[in-house]
Amino acid sequence: MALPLRRRRNDRSRGQSLAEFALVFPFFLVILFGVIEFAFVFNAYLSIDFATRDAALAAVEAGNETGADCSILRAVERSIAAPADKGSITQVRIFKASTTGAMLAPKNVYTRTGSTPCQDGLGSVPYSASSTTYPESSRCNVLAGCGPGSLTVDTIGVEITYTYTWKTPLARLLPTAGPGYTMIKANAMRMEPVL
Length: 195
Fold this sequence. Notes:
- The chain is α+β, with helices and mostly antiparallel strands.
- The chain has one domain.
- The chain has helices at 5-62, 68-79, 170-173, and strands at 89-97, 103-111, 116-117, 124-125, 128-132, 155-165, 180-190.
- The strands form 2 sheets. Strands 5-2-1-6-7 form a 5-stranded antiparallel beta sheet. The protein has a two-stranded antiparallel ribbon with strand order 3-4.
- A hairpin with a 6-residue loop joins strand 3 and strand 4 (124-125).
- Helix 1 (5-62) packs antiparallel against helix 2.
- The longest helix is centred in the first third of the chain and has 58 residues, at 5-62.
- It is elongated.
């Protein structure tokens, strides 16, 4: 018994729709995962940008006081919020900057390993110092300068290195994506002068 012509056309149309869906669906998934991943990456970037500004502000207010670096590192920890992950911070650099914000030679480098007790008696921070060539006591916050060759207060900067790992299966869909992405962001501010 032959099926009516109309029913045979509907069956062919359904098969064609299923084939088209099978061809388009992978591209749709890549675009969907790409949009979601971009949102996570953008959030992490904005989070570390805000953290560097907040930490630089803490640095200029702390000046050359004992425990200034702990205040800076606490500001970094406080500023990184979900969905960004504090544990993805690999390094924080506190450095003397030029007036344009460029990193100059003296800097303190902290890696996110171990724990460092703070001298201010307010606990510890989850960082250990790997280099301390910019001690807190050497920072100049006197308006007239601190010694020969110094005409004004220091400009201090904070740089964060953050390792972002993929949140969606996008990296598995795109084999050239690698395991993640490293972001480096810095901000510098002029220290608050003591008159």
